[in-house]
Amino acid sequence: MDVTLFYTPLSGHLNERYKNFLCSAGLRDEGDADVVALMLDDDFQIVACGARAGHTLKQFAVSPDLEGGGACASVLSELMNEASRSGVNRLFLCTKPANLAMFASMGFYPVVATPDAVLMEDRRNGFESFLASIPHREGVSGAIVLNGDPFTRGHLQLCEYAAARCDALYLFSVSEEGSLFSPDERFEMLDRGTAHLQNRVLCRSDAYLVSRATFPAYFIRDERHAESVRADLDVELFRSRIAPALNISVRFVGEEPFSPTTRSYNERMKELLPERGIELVEIPRLDGISASRVRALIKEGRIEETKDLVPETTYEAIIRYAQRHA
After folding, report:
1. What angle, 0 to 180 degrees and rounded to 10, lies between the N-to-C axes of helices 312-324 and 291-299?
2. Cα Rg for the chain, rounded, in angstroms?
């Protein structure tokens, strides 16, 4: 049986059949795929599937009577070839730990695992290369991971507070798309906004930190549990591989009164990081300042009102953004 590629969105009837097939395998459609690979039998019924969303392969399912017969490998191979043709030159997948050996036999290497999920990539030393690209510093090291969409005075307060308590402060700028400002714009705002901190080490998170794209949880039916699976995988990668490699002993976060997802993530870090000797320090949020408020003002065209909420360097970036979207 051949594998056929369908670029999204799928037609209504085909999309319904695809979702039903996933559901029958205990999976969910996360709705972000760029391309779906379907293996159809002689009656045009779906017997195996997989998908690619950006650089992440996901949503693999095979009919029970075809398991172990190479159907999954055929779907995976077709998606990998399609990714290569589309210029996607690195691939990740996140799956159940029970599937680790199967995907390892197909050329994927484990990055980190929890009882619920395993993150894999198609490069043998991909994660090691990421760590090697980060300058290593001596002494007491701390870390902040932030999206900074945009970088506010609250973010600046957090960075200054942390920098005063470390010999080296690793600032990881989240590289994932999907924010108001692009990853490059957010990185520049963080760079310019913290240029006065002499002990900072500025890094991009690449695909390894706080990435919903890299950490899909389509194999968890309960979406609320899926968020905790993502959080645990992210925290495990930080505490077991990133922190030891960079000698990070403390992670700093800002208090989160608004986002339940971020608040739950912070609470999970409070539980898991100390198990590896990593302290989590949470500092109070500056009154009235949040990135979400700044974004709302930008979208409403009230640019001048953002001036007191962000550093001057960010305000300049906001003006440039407004000019581009005028």
Report:
1. 30
2. 21
Burial of 19 (0-12, 13-18, 19+ CB in 10 A): middle
Question: What is the torsion angle, in degrees rounded to the nearest 10, for the CA atoms of residue 29, residue 34, residue 38 and residue 43?
Answer: 90
Coil, helix or strand for 307?
coil
Q: What is the distance between the alpha carbons of residues 116 and 231, in angstroms, rounded to a whole number?
A: 11
Q: How many CB atoms lie within 10 A of CB 179?
A: 16
Locate all alpha helices (DSSP H) within 181-273, ordered by sequence: 183-193, 223-237, 243-246, 260-272
> Are 298 and 174 in contact, with CB atoms under 8 Å apart?
no
Contacts of 3 (CB under 8 A, 6+ apart): 37, 38, 39, 48, 74, 75, 78
Beta bridge partners of 282: 253
Among all chains, which residue has been given the structure tokens 């520049």?
188
Q: Measure the N-to-C terminal CA separation of the chain; round to a whole number of Å.
A: 52
Residue 175's SS3 state is coil
Query: Tokens representing 271?
Result: 């539980």
Cα 257 to Cα 117, 212, 289: the distances in Å are: 29, 21, 11
**DSSP 3-state assignment of 126?**
helix
Cα separation of 284 and 325, whole Å?
A: 34
d(CA 195, CA 189) in angstroms, rounded, equals 10
pLDDT along the chain (326 residues), means of 10: 93 94 92 94 93 93 90 96 94 91 94 93 94 93 95 96 97 90 96 98 87 62 74 93 96 83 86 96 87 95 96 97 90
Instruction: Measure the CA–CA gap between 66 and 86, rounded to whole angstroms.
Output: 29
pTM of the model: 0.90
Which strand ranges, in their side-by-side order, compose the sheet holding 168-173? Answer: 200-204, 168-173, 141-146, 248-254, 279-283
